[in-house]
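Section 5.1 Outputs to date
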Amino acid sequence: MHQTFDAALGINLLHANQEGADHNREHFDEWGIICLNVMSSPGAGKTVLLERTLAALSSELKIAVIEGDMTTELDADRLRKYNVPVIAINTGRSCHLDSKMVAGGIHQLSYQYNPAEFDLVLVENVGNLVCPAEFEVGEHAKVALLSLTEGEDKPLKYPVMFQEADCLLITKMDLAPHLDVDVDRIVANVRQMNPHVAIVPVSAKTGEGLDAWFDWVRFQIKRSAPAKQQLSVVH
């Protein structure tokens, strides 16, 4: 009975979260915004990737960030240096952002700015390879990071993250000469979980692969362009 109750409770929580995520996505669609949910384990390079992304794309795209962290605003402060709106959300003991938390961030953004002017919202989720993949926040696509230092087996040990990802960035490629890690094996393990995910090896330090990542982001924006143009005509 206890196990049945726990399972039902989990299903109800996910169902309620999904309703909230769908509502968040309706807001993004109404404003013509693409939302990307950026997820990884701690230290895989989410924040530095966003720093490089803001530095490269904020002159051509109107970008905002919803920054999730358990206790501090250290990462949010790093991103604020790029003169984009950064909404910080502290999750306390929760190891992921959920749709209700992100709804709060959306409300802050819409209160302080005209959201219809934005092209892209980047959600940096809490560092964790399990929970963030289970809880949608209203994103149009999920971006997962896996650093070389985490090894080849993580896609097999934490399958949901990689099954759900639309784009996987293999980070810290500059360390490849110093590690006994087979990048081809990482790719094969990811493909076993998700045959269709876009895979981009990158190094925030050397710049390797970042142009391919930027192009992937631009493509997500381009796909939404007709809807945004139609929205602007209506308004």
